[in-house]
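ok so I'm stuck.
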Amino acid sequence: MRTWCEGAIRRCGMLLLAGLGLAGMSAARAASLDPALLPKIQAATFEVVQAKPAGDPLSYERPLPLEQLPYQERTDKYYSIGTAFAIGHNRYVTAGHVLLAGADSLWGPPELRDAAGRVYPIGKIEKFSLGKDFVVFTLAQPPAGDAALEIDASPALNQVVYAVGNALGTGVVIRDGLYTSDTPEQENGAWKWMRFSAAASPGNSGGPLLDKDGKLIGVVLMKSANENLNYALPIHEVLDAPAGRAVMESRLAYQLDLFDTIQNGQLKAQFALPAGLGDFYREFQSRMDANSDAQLKALLAKESANLFPNGAGSARLLHQQTQLNGFPTLIVRGSDGEWRRVGEQTQYFALDGNGYVATGGVARNGLVRLRRPDGMAAATFYGDAKARMDLLARTGMFQRAVAGEKVKITSLGKPVRESTHLDRWQRSWRIGVWPLPYANAFVVTYSLLVPDGSVMLVRFAPPAHAHDTMLDLDEISSFVHVTYQGTLAQWKDFLGNPALQPATLKDIRIDFDYDRRFSYASPRVAFSYPSSLQPVKPDNLLWLGFRFFLDGGKPVWDVGDVDIWKDSASDDHNNVNVQRYVAPPPGLDDDLSSRWRKLSERQYPYNAVARYENDLMMINAVVAPAGAAGQPSTVLYTAFYGTAGTQPQADMKGKLDLLTKDMRVTEH
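replied:
not stuck anymore, here's the structure
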């Protein structure tokens, strides 16, 4: 399985903390601290935990080997995500990013667990700072006693310090080092980090940093990426912070997987505290989501003049010959400013009944082409998101690792959320969101239903970033290049369901009468041919080469190529083709200008003379718009017929005449 990037997180302030934050722990030696202080430190220090999911909507090919997990992991009903500590009667502190791990989480809300295994739900959030990454809160029912750490708000440099943290539920671990320096915070130096050399492992996040006398001097927040000099927030920053307010100030950035431009911004927001945990999360998330909305809007506005199909970098793609692609691609802008189609099939999985799943990806976006198996009813495939997703799961692309073993996920169950999205070209995408409770993540899919199955965009996202993920995919869906393909039998099912069809296709009439005639009519071109030209059978393969081009200066998504292959199962390439060409603007590639000159002057190979290439006889002719005789046209169409083996010129010309007899170009 291709691993699609799970980095839907683009909020750089959070990424710094979430990426470098410490969220679990391994055992280590206890440091030399006065033994008489240890019970008090232990009583005032807590593990931050989240309850493991009670149920699992996923199905597996075999029972999970849970018995192979270590005893602690196997029997614990909670996940350990960090550390917290008491600073007074029913007043507790942890890292902001530890608390935010519970936002929209598929696990339970964060709670505190003491050394005896008792669990305490969080009551009210009293202080919070996104930029400084801390939170002060109460417990709904605090433990008996008033165990709290003593505080030294003005610690001296170069003294011995102790980092305290839980070790995945196995007890408090204390490790020593030196308080080495103060380092200005990265954005504007408004305050300073404490740097210390005591070892800090996953699990220390939100834990206390103590001085030589066991007094609290800081909150452990980040691990150094390249050296053992870790980061703590001075405790006076927590104590001096305003009560009754959640402060959201951080430098955040937004980027789409379509071009290199980054939208940098400064989030500045506040809301009133105290608040219950659920209300806190809602208030926080609404402001983060609104900021993402605003940043994306600003990014698109900044790029509007050069956002495909606008700008000089779009011209080449808008005027190139129509490309037929069985696999979807994304239109992205390179460093040279040119927009191109990117994305290749990297894996292929065969399904029963001629079905298949082809996968690839661009940046964080998985690309999928799913062909419906012949044995699956069209109504089931198009109407049941679970049935479509089960086909993907059947390939083994979803696996769960347990105790070093990978177990195939055979079904993700029903989506927890379904909706539709119309992209800017009026193509209807079916949105599905599936939970992966064991990973605390969602699988988000955007499916464009097509005659032979569906084309999909896929991402994995943390629950708190589902909004950002869908915000991205709403925009990216408009940049998907896809060919509509299928057998005539599949097209019959597809055309019988108008709700599946993009707006452009509703203005196109496709008719076929097996063994008699095929016809195609759009506002641009119409043609038909009898079965004597090419047999009209249910297994003919019809490709509509949709593409982006300019129509009267306005960008549209419409058909530029109609291809009907004699047999979908053979490789003889007998086919009928009608293709649209447009005059390129001056200054584009010489090959575009050269092709247009040949078309305009009916030069070879567009001169209705048969030719033999690669075991195939081929013949082309140019058809101009009706009423354009003797006048230059900016739009021309070609009619093509190809058949295996050698054929006389007269026979090939006769076939071509059958195709062009009723062909009319109605656009100018």
